[in-house]
Design a protein that fits this description.
Layout (H helix, E strand, L loop, with lengths): L5 H4 L5 H14 L5 E2 L11 H12 L12 H15 L8 E4 L2 H12 L5 E6 L4 H8 L3 E6 L10 H7 L4 E7 L11 H13 L3 E5 L20 H6 E6 L12 E4 L2 H14 L5 H11 L3 H24 L4 E2 L7 E5 L6 E3 L2 E3 L2 H12 L1 E2 L1 E2 L8 E5 L4 H16 L3
Parallel strand pairs: 1-13, 3-4, 3-5, 5-6, 6-7
Antiparallel strand pairs: 2-8, 7-8, 9-10, 10-15, 11-12, 14-15
The protein binds pyridoxal-5'-phosphate.
The site of pyridoxal-5'-phosphate has 13 residues, from helix 5.
Length: 398
């Protein structure tokens, strides 16, 4: 008898979590490991969120809430969508979930029938294909071009659409690339989506981390027809340094939100009541609190790219958003480092960890074996130390 489902056997465990575990193990053995792997803000949760969470505990807000979340929080999310994204949503078009990952998995379960296809770009965030598969769907991966900052073009999109296509999954700003889709690019994608009645699941979790003169545009802003087909995914993890609290949310048409509520009602009921109040406090925090974190990320980003500019064997995609730099390491392949011949991103990541105690994520985790991802959601001191070590590693290649 098959004691574990075939479904699970087809799912890859998260490679980023595996690398973190390996780095933690070396740390426990007493090594000083520089962690460029984690996609987690190193800042503390804003004071207003903590206070609201503590107050919720003290006044006994510890009972079940409505499945989509407390009305005040959904109203605050509607206000945020209006203020930041110029979008009108009502609270019955919002559902809060236990992290954006859970928003994505609930949304795909709500819209996908077995075998229906979801189009996404490679390189992709590690969990996307697996979340789609768990929901019974089929990921259809477009191998996007580096010259186009790994963004999906309209022509590439048209080539892979079939009568089974149910949704396009977009992520802007993107993980792992840090690329941003412009309004024009989104207009092109929206036209195809509307013409073919395809949903766009728009993961906007990094929307607050946009550098230089770039702007965030939600594809739902393009037209009312597109808004009807858009499922916006967002949450507090990255914008408000609240990864452990687990609060994500979804904005979509009422039917999608209702369907997600049916699934969530039988799965987790709702995100923790305490977390919901903390998220409400977070949404009310002073703009300066977020600005401070943003400014620090920007300083680190600029420092990191100035150092990478000096390492001539590497090229990178100029990061416009999020907190990652996606680096092309083809120039390092075929060389030996401390006697280890490196041919691919995983061997490179292993060698960097073993020889220099620097943890990075190999591109293969994102479906692209020629790159590695470095996160700058870590202190300047660590970034300096880590880049010194990478520089040293490269020098030793023969
Ligand atoms: N979407 C993207 C692109 C991410 O990078 C992440 C986290 O790494 C998430 C969603 C999930 O965020 P959460 O912690 O809210 O589940």
């Amino acid at each position: 008898k098959n004691m574990i489902s075939n479904k699970v056997k087809s799912i890859q465990p998260s490679m980023t979590l595996a690398i973190t575990a390996k780095a933690n193990q070396l740390n426990r053995q007493g090594y000083d490991v520089v962690a460029f792997g984690v996609g987690e803000p190193d800042f503390d949760t804003p004071h207003s969120a903590k206070e609201a969470g503590i107050a919720a505990i003290q006044v006994g807000k510890s009972k079940y809430t409505p499945v989509p979340g407390i009305l005040e929080l959904r109203q605050a999310i509607c206000e945020k969508l209006k203020k930041d994204n110029h979008l009108d949503y009502s609270p019955d078009q919002i559902i809060t979930n236990s992290g954006a990952k859970h928003s994505l998995s609930t949304a795909f379960q709500a819209i996908l029938d077995p075998g229906e296809e979801v189009i996404l770009a490679a390189p992709y965030w590690v969990s996307y294909p697996e979340i789609i598969k768990i929901a019974g769907g089929k990921p259809v991966v477009i191998e996007t071009k580096e010259a186009n900052n790994f963004k999906i073009t309209v022509d590439e999109l048209k080539e892979v659409i079939t009568d089974k296509t149910k949704a396009i999954l977009l992520n802007s700003p993107s993980n792992p690339v840090g690329a941003i889709y412009s309004r024009e690019e989104l207009e092109g994608i929206a036209k195809v989506a509307v013409e073919n009645s395809i949903y766009v699941v728009s993961d906007e979790i990094y929307e607050k981390l946009i550098y230089d003169d770039n702007h965030h545009v939600s594809i739902a802003e393009i037209s009312s027809e597109m808004k009807e087909l858009t499922i916006i995914i967002n949450g507090m993890s990255k914008s408000h340094a609240m990864t452990g609290w687990r609060l994500g949310y979804t904005a979509a048409n009422k039917e999608v939100i209702k369907a997600m509520g049916i699934i969530q009602g039988h799965a987790v009921s709702h995100p923790s009541s305490i977390t919901q109040y903390a998220a409400l406090g977070a949404l009310q925090c002073e703009e300066s609190v977020l600005q401070k974190m943003f400014d620090e990320y920007d300083i680190r980003r600029k420092y990191m790219i100035s150092r990478l500019d000096e390492m001539k064997q590497l090229t990178y995609i100029y990061p416009q958003g999020a907190f990652y730099v996606f680096i092309n390491v083809l120039g390092l392949f075929g060389k030996s480092y401390n006697g280890k011949l490196v041919h691919n991103s995983l061997e490179l990541a292993d060698a960097l960890l073993e020889d220099e105690k620097v943890a990075v994520v190999p591109g293969i985790a994102f479906g692209l074996d020629t790159h590695i991802r470095l996160s700058y959601a870590t202190s300047m001191e660590e970034i300096k130390k880590g880049l010194d070590r990478i520089e040293n590693f490269i020098k030793n290649g023969v």
